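Q: Predict the assembly, please.
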Amino acid sequence: MRRILIATSNPGKLRDFAGAAAKLGVEVAGIPNFSSLPLVVEDGATFEANARKKAEEYSLAVPGEIVIADDSGLEIDALNGAPGVHSARYAAPELLGQEPHEAGSNTDDEANNQRVLRELENVAAGQRTARFVCVLAAARDGQTVATFRGTAEGVILPAPRGSNGFGYDPLFFFPKIQKTFAELTAEEKSRYSHRGAAFRKLQEWISEQG
Ligand code: IMP
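A: Predicted assembly structure:
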């Protein structure tokens, strides 16, 4: 394999993928004209379903190429796995008057965090376990050829801590190094995060492809 194309318009994600693949001698690029392709609707019930759907649909635009897409989010045990696949728009009921699965746009991180804190108000410290999950899917010509899942296990704090990162990072305490994800450097985040773990599995797969 000489080249993989990433289904994202986010330059930060593209940079992360390029960094992960650099030492393997694989070229990493965005899908040409990505922003002019029809948006894939992320209506799957799981992270894996959404990642596969995106990778498969976008791969049809670039015949013969390997396309990588991702989906990620936070699962809180006391909320039966919510916000889950709705992580990016969990505050939609308050902000948009719509359920997250109907919302056409994401809601801001602060409002999403506030909803989580409200719902966990009466949940004891020992019951606030959660995990970040990232699934990457690789597809070619409309078919998924591999998926990679990474997780990070932690606990939801009663108040935010730290100012690095994004999303739910300030609420997510990672016991292994006694910091929230918003207190990690970029290097620590890639070492401990769900995304880093999924990336390493992707790297391994790339190096096995020859
Ligand atoms: P997406 O995979 O880019 O659609 O991200 C889904 C949502 O999950 C984000 O908008 C965040 O709310 C949450 N999320 C995913 N990964 C992280 C992370 O590393 N830190 C904090 N929040 C995250």
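The two ends are 6 Å apart (CA to CA). Residues 94 and 153 are 28 Å apart (CA to CA).
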